[in-house]
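seq:
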Amino acid sequence: MTLQQLKYVVEIVGCGSLNEAAKRLFLSQPSLSNAVKELERELGFEIFLRSSRGITLTAAGSEFLGYARQVVEQAQLLETRYFHSKPPRAHFSVSTQHYSFAVNAFVNLIRQSGFEEYDFTLRETKTFEIIEDVKSLRSELGILYLSSFNAKVLSKLFLENDLLFHPLFRADPHIFISTKNPLAGRKSVTLEDLEPFPCLCFEQGDYNSFYFSEEILSTVFRKKSIFVSDRATLFKVLIGLNGYTVSTGIISAELNGPNIIAVPLKADETIEVGWVSHKSVSLSRLGVLYLEELKKVVADYGMKLLE
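struct:
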């Protein structure tokens, strides 16, 4: 086993494909593939499962990756310290539901990291894809919520995919509405108050189940529903049609604009937001730093951390 082979494995996982990893490593795909197969023969187990759809880590491969990352990171620190080599190109990826605090923490991480070169990825995506991203280590961690309604189903998925859910904070439900919405002056609203207005939700694609909805109370009947795929569209439609969406109450004027406000929603439900990690893989240094920034941002919004 060589350090170079470990770097190959880390790069393949970071890129999500052999093709892209080979390009970044300035290798041919066959050469990279052969190097990994040689390592697998030496280890006595497969690191990757290969199919027509691409490659994914095996359970043993996921555990191996955790150790490989630590070795590679320590080697890079040694090279930088004692051989005055150029700092390595940083890689980090996080997948999240559409939360402004997750974006703020991501921005803070990049600003404070000081890297001259990096490949960072922030995926605001569907609930099921967050689970898939962390399972396959496409993303180091994922951010989503649990409620009394979806907790049983999602917890089962976490268990089946070797994932761990770490609670971050608990929030009472709020609605996001335009400052021009007739309900904007209310101290709180009820579901009955919302009946005349269109409800906006993030669509979930092939997994458009109530359990995967980003919005709580997903089974409540609504006369008017609009599904969108991105944050910008949601807020444009929300303002244009006097619609609303249900969320945590944490709102960023920097990201969402000054014309959106949060109003408490009276409902017998709470939102427990947390982060998901792979149980066989320790967070990298950047993963730990991102988590620290995430906690700072959440605390700055007045939320009590659960960890």
